[in-house]
């Protein structure tokens, strides 16, 4: 009986001690977490610095007892150049510079933190040159810290869309008339993307090692960034993702499937065409590399994900890239001509004459790659639609290339 009373007392003591510890942890989290407002992603906020001091500490995957510098908050400071230190000290200095560049600078005012901004810019330039140089040997630990720094900079909460700021309904806005949002801290962000691109294309980086860091999660978050309104960022993303697709063969099915899922989301949920053109441009290169005969998977995605893109109101933004992808399918497999032509006729615009002109131009490209046997299968519905175009009240449709 006495032993039971002692055990119960110990349990109550442990519970109260644990409750006290949980309260302390909650208080600490409340004081260190940063609230980030955004509308499209839920990625954690990267670390930021203000007045030369960092406000949050980012955990590094390369933290070890042998690297005590990673246990402290990164501070932007002038460090020795990589070329001025011995080869044995270079890896540790490289990681320290990468860890330091995880900090964000305040670009809301050009007069705020000018020294810290220049230090980070020069450090990023040095890291880019180091990867490009012949002496840029990067071991696995260095790669881990490098990708952690890249993730801390590029993966962020994107600003709200134009119509979300103005309160106007999204269907009432013309994407061509919207002013693109330009990232104010692009001088740093551009160098981070350039660093990532140099890392991916480097012949010194083995895919077997790099896949530990360039994994499916990283690629998926990279694809989410195509929703950025800054065209400069989307251009870099297009190049980086295309290089990843070419180098990491084991990522190819995942990248294709993820791109098609973005198309589905665009068609049936968001109707936001930002980034669709760049993704179609990547897909055009991918389709060009398909083997013949084409697999049923690719035929299915053509019907379910690519051809339905013709029904969007904002097709003029990405129609050039879409027409190229569709034509690539027909040139790869001539048997798909009937499927493509009937798909175009299915989504043929009824009242939008400018969109109808786009369809006629795409139809002409498809017919140039169509074999006579496939043409005969769709000749009746095709000429029925052409007859309607000849009777159109719009002169551009009626006299299209006559």
Secondary-structure blueprint:
Blueprint lengths: L1 H31 L16 E2 L2 E2 L35 H11 L13 H19 L7 H15 L7 H5 L19 H16 L5 H4 L5 H9 L6 H17 L4 H19 L5 H13 L7 H11 L12 H14 L4 H10 L6 H16 L3 H6 L1 H12 L4 H4 L4
Antiparallel strand pairs: 1-2
Helix pairs in contact: 2-3, 2-4, 3-6, 4-6, 6-9, 8-10, 9-11, 11-13, 13-15, 14-15
**Which sequence of SSEs, written as H and E, runs from N to C?**
HEEHHHHHHHHHHHHHHHHH
The largest sheet has its strands arranged as 1-2
Quick check: average pLDDT? 81
Radius of gyration: 27 Å
Shape: elongated
Briefly note the structural class of the backbone: mainly alpha
Q: CA-to-CA gap between the ends?
A: 104 Å
Largest sheet: 2 strands, antiparallel
Summary, kept brief:
It is built from 18 helices and two strands.
Question: How would you characterize this protein structure?
Answer:
The protein is mostly helical and 402 residues long. The protein has a domain at 307-401. It contains 18 helices and two strands. The chain has a two-stranded antiparallel sheet. Helix 9 packs parallel to helix 11 (276-288). The radius of gyration is 27 Å and the shape is elongated. Residues 15-21 and 23-66 have low confidence and may be disordered. It comes from Arabidopsis thaliana. One of its GO terms (molecular function) is protein phosphatase regulator activity. Residues 23-34 have a biased composition (Low complexity). Residues 35-71 have a biased composition (Polar residues). It holds the Pfam family B56.
